[in-house]
Amino acid sequence: MNDLMGRMFYIYSSLFISLALNIPKLLALKEDSVLARYMHFNIYEWLFQTGINFLFSLLVFLIAHDRFSGSLRHWKWWREGKAGLLLFLLLFFFAVFSVGIQKRVFGAGILPGRGIGLKFLLTIILAGIELKIVNILRMARVKELENIRLRNAHLKTELELLKGQLQPHFFFNALSSLSGVVREDPAKAQYYISQLSKVFRHSLQKEEDNLVPLKEELEAAGSYAALLKMRHEEGFGVQIDIPSAIFTARLPHMSLQPLMENAVKHNVVTAARPLLMTITAEKDIHGAYCIVVRNNLQRLPFHPQGTGIGLSNLNERYKILLQREIEISRTADAFTVKLPLK
Question: Is the whole-model pTM more than 0.70?
Answer without folding.
Answer: no
